[in-house]
Amino acid sequence: MKIVVCVKQVPDTSDIKWTENNTMVRDGVESIVNPFDEYAIETALRVKEANPGSTLTAVTMGPPQAKDVLKKAIAMGADDAILISDKKFAGSDTQATSRTLAKAIKEKIGDFDLIVCGQFAIDGDTAQTGPSIAKHLDIPQITYTKEVVNSSDSTLVAKREIEEGMQTIEMQLPGLICMVKCDYEPRRAPIKGVMKANRTEIPEFNMEEIGLEPEQVGIKGSPTYVSKAFRPPIREGGEKITADSPKELAEILLSKLKETKVLVS
Amino acid sequence: MDINSYKGICVVAEATSANKLTGVTWELIGAAKQLSEQLNGEEISVILISGNNDVNPLLKEISEAGAQKCYLAQDDKLAAYSTEYYAKIICDIVNAKKPSIMLFGASTTGRDLAPRISSELNTGLTADCTELGINEKGLLAATRPTFGGNLMATILCKSRPQMATVRPKVLARPEAHSSNNLEIEKINVKLDGVPLRTKILELAKSLSTACVTIEAAEINVSGGRGMKTAENFKILEDLAQALGGAVGASRAAVDAGWRGHCDQVGQTGKTVTPKLYIACGISGAIQHLAGMNASETIVAINKDPDAAIFDIATYGLVGDLFEVVPALTEAIKKEQLTAAI
After folding, report:
1. DSSP string covering chain A, please?
2. Nearest to A223 among B111, B158, B243 (CB)
3. Residues B232 and B133 grouped into a single domain
4. Tally of domains in chain B
5. CATH number where B146 lies
6. Interface TM-score (ipTM) > 0.95
7. Do A16 and B286 touch (CB under 8 A)?
8. Is B194 on the interface with A (CB under 8 A)?
9. Which one of B127, B151, B186 terminates a domain?
10. Residues B134, B219: one domain?
11. How many angstroms separate the CA atoms of B324 and B322, rounded?
12. Are B29 and B129 found together in one domain?
């Protein structure tokens, strides 16, 4: 099988700081592999291992430093990787991003059987890029995938986590899956893998090299744009209740919850 | 694209297995009414896709919620949700009827389907919105949290239709009004030649009750690192049961293996907006807050008086949860208290 994994470099959102003017400080924020993409890499590796002779290629779109996430994928076990990078891609929304990634996969990787993505990126949190890539490549998709049950050259069976419970679904390949957090953890990169990643040349392609036009990418190729960004109102804490005994604490709380009609008898 | 030829607000309906509209479908129709008022009364339509079962209860609800028109697509092939068939039906309706705004629930189905449609139609889609409005130019202004809830962004769309998925239980549910004015247009379902490359093999409903109920529950009792063991969650289950609520967990508790991931509240788990959220032994990391800080009332129980959760809790109880929680459960049972509806 020829497997592709899409990964994204994201800022660590647990480490967000603000200026006095309520703008987000972006400098000095640590970049990490999107956590859901680590599950995508792990799942792609498991599919690769279950189908001997398979290859795994990692792809990302981003600035030159985004090569770090591709190196991580190679260190974990991907065979190779490509970086899609061009200043013209700046300002891409999910539509432009998915169009760019789909075209790059088609032109530079070719006859793939399976594409694995993370369900969300923790920065944008849209969950749209995966399904949109599938549409641009006219292949089926399974979103909210928890586990790949089995796979072959022609079909894949997966479990997806939806409101009603756990759905088992079969998909014809080529196809795309989006991974949520799995019951297994992403593997740590072995030393040998890290050494291999350091040795591996990662080819880089720009807009022209993947065959797109300026009006299809970046701000021009994006139907949506941000008109306003602001810090959410900070929820004010209420009162802290202390008492001599747990029973008394419980009673004070319940009287307040009854008073405010949160609870009724 | 002649954007002036696009008019009206169209909601894509979802139904439950009990043949009722989902809560978010009601909320979307309510939002559509408000947007319509700001757009000189543009038409509010609903797309309902279904198998050949009785859709009359759903049509009645759609009418009561306030829609004026319903595009009804019925076929045996549409009895279960499939990305490819549903996307084809909706794209055909949009191309023929040209709504200016299209709203989907940010359910797993809505978030599976909407990006597929926006890419087919080559238009913009804003994900998981928590607020919708019309700006001074008459455009849909869709506001959503981003960067793990650290930043809010208001997004506009240059093309048509302007599409959005909307987070459940955030917008108000409209009051039901009886009305006989719903115009129903039956859609001629054309699926010949449309590939269906997925097949549902099984749905395990009872895998975990929390998976089903955690987002729907009006009361949520969640435990964190302070719970110490999986067995200790029993006291939270007792409290949740006494209140008719569900039990959730912080990432720390899930990572420790005490609860399954489908119980996880927070950035890499579920977003919940219950009427009452009781956080037990949860320190209040920003990622956890992102999943629950829109709850109406937040109670925090924690031994550490400096825990960050107290900064946002409506009522903060400083104490040992292993003593306070059972005391609460007992008092609730004694007074037979339940959530106000």
Report:
1. -EEEEE--EEE-GGG-EE-TTS-EE-TTPPEEE-HHHHHHHHHHHHHHHHSTT-EEEEEEES-GGGHHHHHHHHHHT-SEEEEE--GGGTT--HHHHHHHHHHHIIIII-S-SEEEEES--TTT----HHHHHHHHTT--EEEEEEEEEEE-SSEEEEEEEETTEEEEEEEESSEEEEE---SSPPPPPPHHHHHHHHH----EE-HHHHT--GGGSTTTT-SEEEEEEEPPPPPPP-EEE--SSHHHHHHHHHHHHHHTTSEE-
2. B158
3. no
4. 2
5. 3.40.50.620
6. no
7. yes
8. no
9. B186
10. no
11. 6
12. yes
Query: B233 and B278 share a domain?
Result: yes
Nearest to A16 among B114, B150, B313 (CB): B150
> For position B307, which CATH number holds?
3.40.50.1220
Whether residues B233 and B141 share a domain: the answer is no
How close, in Å, is residue A61 to chain B by CA atoms? 18
What pTM does this model have?
0.89
pLDDT of residue B210: 44
Specify if B220 maps to a domain. Answer: yes
- Span B140-190, pLDDT tens digits: 999 998 887 778 999 999 999 999 999 988 899 999 998 778 999 999 999
Query: Do A263 and B276 count as a contact with CB atoms less than 8 A apart?
Result: yes
CB of B239 within 8 Å of any CB in chain A? no
Residue B309 falls inside a structural domain = yes
Peptide bond into B161 cis (omega under 30): yes
Chain A closest-CA separation from residue B180 CA (Å): 32
For residues B157 and B16, state if they share a domain: yes
Q: Do A11 and B147 touch (CB under 8 A)?
A: yes
Mean pLDDT of B109-132: 97
pLDDT digits (tens, 9 = 90+) for A19-41: 776 666 777 788 999 999 999 99
Interchain contact, B128 vs A125, CB within 8 Å? yes
Beta bridge partners of A228: B154
- Say yes or no: B80 contacts chain A, CB-CB below 8 A: no
For B209, which residue in chain A has the nearest alpha carbon?
A: A165
| B145, B269, B324 ranked by CB distance to A249: nearest | B324
Alpha-carbon gap, residue B285 to B308, rounded angstroms: 7
- Give the domain extent around B224: 209-340
At B287 the pLDDT is: 84
Residues B13 and B156 in one domain: yes
Substitution target in B118, B123, B264 with the highest count of A β-carbons within 10 Å is B118
At residue B212, the pLDDT reads 57
Tens of each residue's pLDDT in chain A, 265 residues? 999 999 999 988 776 777 776 666 777 788 999 999 999 999 999 999 999 999 999 999 999 999 999 999 999 999 999 999 999 999 999 999 999 999 999 999 999 999 999 999 988 889 999 999 999 999 999 999 999 999 999 999 999 988 888 899 999 999 999 999 898 999 999 999 999 999 999 999 999 999 999 999 999 999 999 999 888 877 888 889 988 899 999 999 999 999 999 998 8
Is B16 within the bounds of a domain? Answer: yes
In a domain, B169, yes or no: yes
CB contact, 8 Å: B136 with chain A?
no
pLDDT in tens, A116-133: 999 999 888 899 999 999
The 10 Å Cβ neighbour count of residue B178 is 7
Band of pLDDT at residue B12, cut at 50, 70 and 90: very high
